[in-house]
Write a structure and sequence with these properties.
Its EC number is 4.2.1.1. By secondary structure, the chain is of the alpha/beta class. 45% of the residues lie in helices and 18% in strands. Strand 7 and strand 8 form a beta hairpin. The structure holds zinc ion (ZN). The site of zinc ion (ZN) has 7 residues, from helix 4.
Length: 268
């Protein structure tokens, strides 16, 4: 029998207590992490989840005659991929997350401007998260551009596509180097290398973008990768998959360490 799964957004009943909006970066992080854990659990075991929301989640003001204020507790820079719907995978209702989505979650000027706007004008925003995802098509395009000069020559015919691919190439190169350092140069000919490079480059890109944001925007920043396999957000750490959001690498060594763990876990 197929497991039944339901997510119900329900306006809080009169007198029903709802969790307070996160008031710190740590609370915002915990809210997104627990929301994602609930979402993943629904996928694993089925069942029903009820998200109790205020009227503003339905586009209604909290009281008659009042305005509808924008009050997200976090901002997320995510990929446009339809398999990684931000509010859904964090189990959050409308007016909870300020979302910027662009292919490859690259930090272009418009994206940085949007996030800066949120941090400057929406005091309820306590944290920014960069969210990559496994099997990313944009990162795959950048990987193919690195592996095949002909693919890159095709890409540069289209300036809009080139802008995204060029923004991703630094992460792809770092991931490639980590795999070569771990397995040797011949690994580039191994079956499975391209897929491993895509997923490690996704991690590299999310981590690099988190570093960029931490320097460009006056707000706490975390990052993670949404796994299409287990539906949790996390990264590969020293002991395998480490679910949850993570601080940006604090320098070259911690970024290299992160990619070395990811390369080892690729199991090529
Ligand atoms: Zn993507």
């Amino acid at each position: 029998m197929t497991e039944q799964r339901e997510i119900i957004w329900r306006q809080a009943r009169p007198g029903e207590e709802r969790p307070a909006r996160p008031a710190s970066p740590a609370e915002a992080r915990a809210r997104l992490e627990s929301g994602n854990a609930d979402f993943a659990k629904l996928g694993d075991h089925g069942g029903q989840q009820i998200i109790s929301v205020g009227p503003e989640a339905f586009g209604l003001p909290p009281a008659a005659g009042a305005g509808l204020a924008q009050q997200p507790f976090a901002a997320v820079l995510a990929c446009s991929d339809a398999r990684a719907p931000v509010e859904l995978l964090f189990n959050q209702a409308g007016n909870s997350i300020f979302v910027v989505r662009v292919a490859g979650n690259v930090p272009g000027r418009e994206c940085l401007g949007s996030l800066n706007y949120a941090v400057t004008n929406l005091p309820t925003v306590k944290m920014i998260t960069v969210l990559g995802h496994t099997s990313c098509g944009a990162v795959s395009a950048a990987v193919d551009a690195l592996l095949s000069p002909q693919v890159y020559l095709d890409v540069i015919q289209d300036p809009s596509l080139r802008a995204i691919v060029d923004a991703l190439l630094a992460g792809v190169r770092m991931a490639d180097q980590a795999l070569v350092n771990t397995y040797g140069r011949d690994i580039r000919d191994a079956p499975g290398f391209r897929d491993a490079l895509v997923d490690l480059a996704v991690t590299a890109n999310a981590a690099i973008t988190a570093v960029v944001l931490a320097r460009a925007v006056d707000c706490a920043v975390t990052f993670g990768v949404f796994s299409l396999d287990n539906r949790t957000v996390g990264i590969t750490g020293a002991d395998g998959w480490d679910a949850g959001l993570h601080d940006p690498p604090d320098g070259d060594r911690s970024l290299t360490q992160l990619l070395t763990w990811g390369a080892a876990a690729a199991g090529l």
